[in-house]
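pipeline/complex-builder :: batch 7 item 3
reading input block
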Amino acid sequence: MATVRIPPVLRPKTGGNSEVDAAGGNVGEVLRALTAAHPDTSAQLFDAEGELNRYVNVYLNDEDVRVLDGLETAVKDSDSVVILPAMAGGAF
Amino acid sequence: MATGAGTEQTQVIEEIEPFEAQQEIEGGDVVLIDTREPHEYQEAHLDGGTLVPPAMLADQIEAAAPDKSARTLLYCRSGNRSGIAAAQLQSLGYTNVASVAGGIIAWQEQGLPVVSASGMTAEQRERYSRHTLLPEVGVDGQIKLLNAKVLLLGAGGLGAPTALYLAAAGVGTIGLVDDDVVDASNLQRQVIHNTERIGMPKTTSARIFIEQLNPDVKVVEHNGRLDASNILAVMEDYDIVVDGADNFPTRYLLNDASVRTRKPVVSASILGFDGQVSTFMPYEGPCYRCLFPTPPPAELAPSCSANGVLGVMAGTMGTLQANEVIKLVLGAGEPLIGRLLLYDALGTTFTELKVRRDPDCPICGEHAAEIPESEMGQFPDYDLFCAGAGGDR
């Protein structure tokens, strides 16, 4: 199973876990397995048409899946899928 | 002729006059060794001279002069120490060694050029000596830092540690943008402020600290918020912008303005135990919009005031930003251009992600519209852009 890395803002929806193991042959299947196990994450990741929300970046290891094959990008068991939303927290 | 020190037999050491040495150096294929102490080297040295202090000779000479048959010239202040060192080198098997007669004093008396710290005062040479000892900084690099102008967006969780280290490093002009006053709840992480200065504008509090730390630094207070009407005027006087803003409209505004003006932005954000940092170099690497084309909806973007933030993690990210700024000024090392570094303070892990330029980026992409000079200061409504983020949810 691949490991999905959960950003801080989604951890309340994964029982506080920062990493969740999820099975799947490609990035889309892995994320679906995540949303099946933790349904509250679904609305944050996917839009009504089942596409990845534009404000969520997903990386396979260190590469943005947008420059690979998107949700079709093949995933191996040893791979890490990183979910990365923008954060604005700063200084003031 | 100088004599060998502590060796069994008296050695004959070749001495050459400074002008002869200079001709040899200009001819190339010469290894030039400075046999003085680091503080003397920093003050002035011959161009191309490698420092090997007398006490370090046995340990360091092979790294500085790996070829024992190469022409090796040594110099010191007046010619004594270099004569002794030359004898030692001959004992170590160096076969073509000479000492510069009269040392750097005679060299300078003959009007020959040296690399000197003349751009710095005696106090500055002392203050920045640990910098100038580094080959990647040196006197030239320190002078670059003293001439650098860096704008910090925010004098808080990220801006405080960034400002401290940039000021200590001698960055000559530091601009601070912040419209807030020091609050007791800031002091867990905003280490540039203190208990006495609660209630004071943050820009003023930070200026007081920096002026006590380093009188070389000129602090410019921009006590207000950046918006579309003032951002270009504020940015105009600076070479590099450090983004520690706490909201998306300001981050997108800064990105669009920095791409228009082609100024690099060292950007970080923090939340809880997690931080992100990257360097956006317009047209050389991706911009903030290539990375995050659309801001997230409010529920996915809680603020530090609502969510909490580990103080020391803010310090880690702020000092990483300062490190990026200093590398950009020096032109040394590998900045985080096209790389996003994630830091997880709970696990103490760093993760690096690749960030690529988006050919379809509306700001820096292939099809981005040219902005005429007359419209340079006109920006879209970022509050509207960010409020509409995430569509209907």
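note: Residues 2-85 of chain A form a domain with the Ubiquitin-like (UB roll) fold (CATH 3.10.20.30).
queue -> next item
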